[in-house]
Automatic annotation (TrEMBL):
TM spans (from-to): 60-77, 84-103, 109-128, 161-179, 253-275, 450-467, 473-495
Record protein name field: Uncharacterized protein
Keywords in alphabetical order: Membrane, Transmembrane, Transmembrane helix
Amino acid sequence: MPPGTPAWRTADVLRWLDAVPARWAHPVFAFLVLAVSVAWEVAADPVPACTSAEPCASDWPGLAVAVVLVLSLYWVWRQPRLAIGGLAFSLAALAVEDGFTAFARPSALAYLLATGFAVAGLVHRLTVAGRQRALALEAAGAAAQPLPDAARTFRRGRMSFVLAAVFLAVAGFGVHQALGVADAYEKRAATASHLSGEVTGVDEGDGLLTVTAEGRTYRIETALPEDFPVDTRVDLVVDDDGAVLVAEPYDAFGWEVLVLAGSVTGLAFLVNGVAGRLGARRLRRGPLPVLHVLVREGDEDGRTWVFAADDTEGRRPVLWFHSLYADDDAGEEDEDDLETADDDGDFGLDKVAQVLHADAPAPPLREAVLYGAPYTGAEVAFVARDDEDDPEVAVECSVTSVKPAVPLWNTGGPSARGRKHPRRPVEEVAAGLTPSAEPRVWRAHGFSRAVGLGLLVVQGGGVWAALEDGPSWHWLLLAVALPWLVTSVATATTWRITADRDGLWVTTAWRVRRVPWDVMLSVTHRDDGILIGRAEDDAVRVS
């Protein structure tokens, strides 16, 4: 520990935790209002009919706006500054295309208001992050140290850049194919006959038009048969391969969807990689503020949890991030770390088995030196011993941004700090328990059954849609998925655990299993279920 490193104490930690975003600024609210407003605008905005003067061809500017809009929805979670720019660009594109009078439409006005709400939340989050940084710098005082040498060789973003290159190449392939479809039509139109005919029949079910031109009848596929009612005059391009509408010259929709998906995913990875590289570079610029803290690795999710230096029992985490070891030889975020073998060559298999059976002890708290001012979205590094008996220290660097350790729907204040249910000694818990004359029962409650009913409605609609069109290969997927679908509904509506003198009786979707007390090792509540560890075989899990 460098001389003069101040301890980040509980009083300073509480001030830091008080500076968390308000509930209304949580990204999920901005995402939901934006998604709903965008869906409303897309559904309500009148789509111009395809005509010979303005055919429905590829709209590359519109596709670019769609890419920015979808990215902005993602950046609301990950990159607030870019999200603000992307939303502003989307509004500007809407105003340029339809004029400012477009906001007279209720759907467009709703999108404008949703964007304003989202931007207000993003600005609030950035302001709060600045406040957290100021509080961290105040706690660190004048203490500053250069980053350890091992952390200076650590690089972020390599895997993100690789994935970005792959997905952007896919998007480029989609652009090439779509342009190829357009070029093929242009060549065809240059040599084909151009006729004008009258629509004599419309089959909206199959998307077919019957057109009579110069005494001949043509059957033509169309994506929008409602745009061409009977007696409408249409222009055709006719050759030996058939006839197509000049208003709908070609169909490159599938390739355009591929371009959209590839561009959004590739650019998202690219921006994440650049942001990680820039964050790691900022850490290497000069001396950094340092804080004496305690750290602990999460036994379930691999997160690094940071605690105040005087919170020796680890009751109230301050922040968390994912980290990897910085190595002088292999300074990359995705290098394999093989330094995990025990002295006898056993790579911790016993410990892995304990974790799988949910009876592994909680990882210990370790003293650490935190480098960099922590705030929401920051990059940090820390130095700590892997074990208190280890004579050497290890350097780890964050590979995800810092996030405050508060509940999902935090509001700041005391309820947002610390655990929802603080750990208590087993003796204290046992002292508050009283004997029961009847078995204790925990069962599916009203909300769980409502979830099951919702699943039943949604899944029933999906099954009906799959069966409605007659036999197809979709039935094979349905046969594979149907048991899982039924199990999820049955579990949500009927799960039950009963405790009596003999043990636990666990009722899952299709069976009841008895776990005697004398073979039970542990009962662990996980995010998505309860795990009951047994001595004789695998654990019993209740979703």
